[in-house]
Amino acid sequence: MLAQPSSRALAAHRRPSPSGPASAAAPSAPRPCRCRACRPGSGLGRAGALRVTAFREDTAAAQPPLKTEEQRRMAQGQGQGQEGFAEGQRQRLSRRGWAVRERKAPLAVWSHTLGELGPQEVDIRVTHNGLCHTDLHMRDDDWGVSKFPFIPGHEVVGEVVGVGSAVPASLRPGSRVGVGWIANSCRSCLACLRGEENVCEKGYTGLIVGGNHGGFQEVLRVTSDFLYSIPDALGSEDAAPLLCAGITVYAPLKRHMARPGMAVAVLGVGGLGHLALQVGGGEGGGGGV
Ligand SMILES: [Zn+2]
Ligand SMILES: [Zn+2]
Ligand SMILES: [Zn+2]
């Protein structure tokens, strides 16, 4: 979906509650996702987001597994002096994912290396990711804003594995969070101040636009106030498609279904339409927003 609705609807989830735990609070224990796809022995999710199974599922830490004892020593900076330390740093900050290397090319495993985690940034171990048609538009550079290679995926759910020094205390390793299409904005224009970053006057930053990398990777780095806490009652596989397809239909329904019982027509019951019917209260509308 190129034209994004307001993200205001989800804004309540964006900024961690000021009544959250104080900074002195102990980090909360990792909370496993309870959705069907995450239960032991299950394969892919029944619908919506696919569970990310392409890589090791038991990677508790942010870095990919190291292969040899020598590499482990190097990562710890013990083996080869400055050179070994640099190699260790490179591995620690290396990220592996499925990338589109050139226009219309199929996804291929690809690695890139990040800098150190910034004060406002969060690393998320991706567990679930929806597939949106926009990922395909971006793959094919249909809108002229793709830059290759890039890692698609912008309906992302995962577990926080790293937090920058200035990230609010309510976001800690183990927090289950989601990321959608918008990764950043100017935060100072009138639109941003209204909570409508999707029409930021300076242009928002798209998660997978212009060479930025999305959720089809093991660990995704994002700015902390553009991610959403996932409520305990919502399974990750159900949450992921809401982060683009869901908000795209939710926002206009929320804004325009002003009266209880108001009918709404959904043209096309596809990826978005079937969510619109659920959000809108089912057959005949019903003002369920
Ligand atoms: Zn799950
Ligand atoms: Zn999308
Ligand atoms: Zn702005």
From TrEMBL:
Stretch list, region Disordered: 1-38, 55-91
Name recorded for this polypeptide: alcohol dehydrogenase (NADP(+))
Alcohol dehydrogenase-like N-terminal domain segment(s): 118-232
Cofactors, names only: Zn(2+)
Signal peptide limits: none
E.C. code: 1.1.1.2
Biased composition regions of type Low complexity, renumbered to the chain: 20-32
Keywords (A to Z) from UniProt: Metal-binding, NADP, Oxidoreductase, Zinc
Gene3D superfamilies linked to this entry: Medium-chain alcohol dehydrogenases, catalytic domain
Statement: the UniProt record of this protein carries the keyword Metal-binding: yes
